[in-house]
Here is the input.
Amino acid sequence: MGKKPELELFENPRPGRDYSITIRCPEFTSVCPKTGQPDFGEVIIEYCPDKLCIELKGLKLYMQSYRNEGIFYEALTNDILDDLSGACKPRRMKVTSRFTPRGGITTDVVAEYKTEK
Here is the structure.
């Protein structure tokens, strides 16, 4: 994949408290690396921030960078988790990708990150 847009972060306003943030990206698109056809789906990001939170405009640009990328669902789900958890260092994070049917088959991929204590 080419250069990804830089993710923007901001300070967690309540770093002493565990709470969840859920971000839905219902218009996610990428390209099937086998057929070259577009894949349409939703990416759901759930995380408990530690010191930093993810700013949404930068996240939108990051997600749009997959639009013309030929990549399997499994790889993109794990790449998104690696990039986001690497940037904001949350206490925990789960990325779920849910793709629309192709040939009568749907696919959901879930990847999780947890800090070691």
Q: What stands out?
A: Helices lie at 56-64, 73-88. The chain has a mean pLDDT of 95. Strands lie at 9-11, 21-31, 38-48, 52-54, 92-102, 105-114.
